[in-house]
Amino acid sequence: MLTFLYTKLDDAFPEQVMGRPRQTTDAELVCIALAGALAGQTSERRWLRRARREVGHLFPSIPSGAQYNKRLRALVEMFKLAIDLLALEYPDFEQALLLLDTTPISCGRSLTTIQHSDLAGTAKRGFCAAYERYYWGFKLVYLCTPEGFPVAYELVPANTDDRDALRVLLGLAKIEGRIIIADRGFRDQKLEAEIIELGGVLLRPSFRKEKLKHPDLKRVRQWVESVFATLKGQLTLEQHGGRTIAGVSTRVIQRICALSAALWFNNLCGQPGRHLTAYEG
């Protein structure tokens, strides 16, 4: 997968035009980072030690810890570009059915961390109804295909209302002719009208006292929960370890890009689906 991915990204990524020529290109660095995410790494330092042993034959020059950390945080836009490039070759990307939900991205639990973290003032305290717990950090709003390939995504403060979080995505994704399946927390007549005006449809479970009943979506709703389980479990998003805005953003987009790459390569191999066992280290 890394070989196929590197050849695709290296042709599309912009060439370095200033400064001393780098021994490790942006495409190589992105591939190294994605390999670490797929291997379930939670520490960049430990992953670099493993990378020299396990993928050093593919990438002879692997940056040191400090250089890797600094360059990776400057490559957020390259991760996004990689996802866009893979989407062009992913057959289900344009399908009509999409899944929508939010999931907590916790950034600290102790009062000392909250007060002295570089995220203080940006990260907020929110409540996750699915886990019935309060947390401090951000909320990932995620719009994807049934298999989990991202269509649009964004990090918002944890106290952001789900409906406002969806409005952020409406400017990022093409929803014309598409059906978005969400949970009942996205109930809003004005929001549903906005989506209809854009050419889409929002489906959600009904509340008990609603006159207009929506179809039973429990089984379909489990699909997006499975996607989050993959991101937070196998791809270790729950243990992202970010302590700055740049750090959290990089680690989140790194995991999303790793999931996209696995789905893309599985499809190339004729085994479409969210099967990541073969990538685990």
Descriptive tags:
281 residues, alpha/beta, Nucleotidyltransferase, domain 5, six-stranded mixed β-sheet, 6 strands, globular
How would you characterize the overall build of this protein?
The chain has 10 helices and 6 strands. Strands 1, 2, 3, 4, 5 and 6 form a 6-stranded mixed β-sheet that branches. Helices cover 42% and strands 15% of the residues. Strand 3 and strand 4 form a beta hairpin. It has helices spanning 2-12, 26-38, 44-54, 65-73, 76-87, 111-116, 162-170, 189-197, 218-232, 245-268; strands spanning 97-108, 124-128, 133-144, 150-157, 179-181, 201-203. It is globular, with a radius of gyration of 19 Å. The chain has a domain at 95-241: Nucleotidyltransferase, domain 5, CATH 3.30.420. It is of the alpha/beta class and 281 residues long.
